[in-house]
Write a structure and sequence with these properties.
Elements lengths: L1 H43 L2 H38 L1
Helix pairs in contact: 1-2
Length: about 80
């Protein structure tokens, strides 16, 4: 009984961490782009350079997220390879 309860608690914690990680990633992406655009508008007062900077930040963050996912899959693959081969 106690062991099943502990396992259920651990599973709930892992689910919360996944949701929190996804929410923080999306939140940081949106906030980072908006603050970059606002900072550029404050510094240069030029909408084209501000939108270019915002697009650059968005592309950079998207590439970073894709790299994180790729590394996660590689880690799982290495684990499975070491575990079953």
């Amino acid at each position: 009984m106690g062991r099943q309860r502990l396992q259920r608690s651990i599973n709930q914690l892992h689910e919360q961490q996944r949701v929190t990680s996804l929410n923080s990633t999306c939140f940081c992406l949106a906030v980072g782009v908006h603050f970059t655009v606002l900072g550029e508008l404050y510094a240069n007062k030029d909408l084209q350079s501000a939108s270019t900077a915002g697009l650059g930040v968005w592309i950079g963050m998207a590439i970073g997220i894709a790299a994180r996912v790729a590394v996660a899959f590689v880690m799982v693959g290495v684990f499975l390879l070491a575990r079953f081969v």
